Amino acid sequence: MNSARENRSPDAIESLRTEELMINMGPQHPSTHGVLRLVIRTDGELVSEAWPHIGYLHRSFEKIGESVNYNQVVPYTDRLDYLASMNNALAYCLAVERLAAIEVPLRAAYLRVIMAELNRIASHLVAFGTYALDLGAFTPFLYGFREREDILAIFEQASGARLLYHYPRIGGVARDIGPDTVQAIRRFITVMRAAWPEYNALLSNNAIFIKRTANVGIVPRAQAIAHGLTGPCLRGSGISYDVRKAHPYSHYEDFTFAIPVGEGKMGTLGDCWDRYWVRMVEILESLKIIEQALDGLPQGPFLAKLPRTVKVPAGEVYVPCENPRGELGFYLVAQGKPQAMRLKVRAPSFCNLSITNALARGVLVADVVAIIGSIDIVLGEVDR
Q: Helix 179-199 and helix 272-295: axis angle, to 10°?
């Protein structure tokens, strides 16, 4: 019996044409890292466009921040990038303190740095595990959460919480840390340094992982700047810019650390692997900062003496900080009242997501997953 193809006329075969399809990836797709909807135009497996649709997690943070007093805003900042709550609260507190000319005790500044860098490591460990999960590897996810659990235990000792900490406060931090917490942090530093080579053996140097990420989603330096990328997405393209060095805050100038940048070691400079690798090396640099802060931790108060309701004089300020995903900035406009007149957030995940369509043109559908994972977005911060 002849096959169906053999029974077709030459004209029928010639008339077969492919057709473009519009496909929704998300907002409930595991590799979109939250409620992100990507509308993808495909011709077979080839992608010609990928447009992000956001707003599924919008909670009106900025308007809420204008309706409550300055102290009451702090818990809301935890819920922006919920994988870096310590960093969010630090950035907001610095903005209020700069506008109100509040002097933070040196011990409090060092404690803030310790917690912010621990949270940076915890965030990068989640990025490590979930990126591997996106690309089909489950084991690295378990490794990443193993060390992250140690950090969450430290945060629980310091703040009583494991995800949303409300630890940095205007004028300092919520409470001091004791010798047991210091010992736990030093123990974590030792454990993390010993585990880091395991991570690389498991994923960084894995041939399949390199095949999926090297030479994929390449962002040249000029394009990274044009799209306003910051954090590992910018440094992955070889640009050595870090807010902690460019505009030091919370006494970061007291610490010695390097700024990891992409080198094109496994492929082309600025590809998915470079962005991943910058995060991995940043873990080691954060460990150095934490160690220096513990060694030089000064005695003294951990919170400035302030009235229960902080009043900020009229004026405006923009304060940037280096979050795990890039430059988080708070823009405040005050009119001398207990609440801000305007509160605006410069969210790194929101800005970094803007390059998605430019990177997705001409790639395979599977590469879109690798590209989104390399950007490392958190939708709570994108939507706000």
A: 150
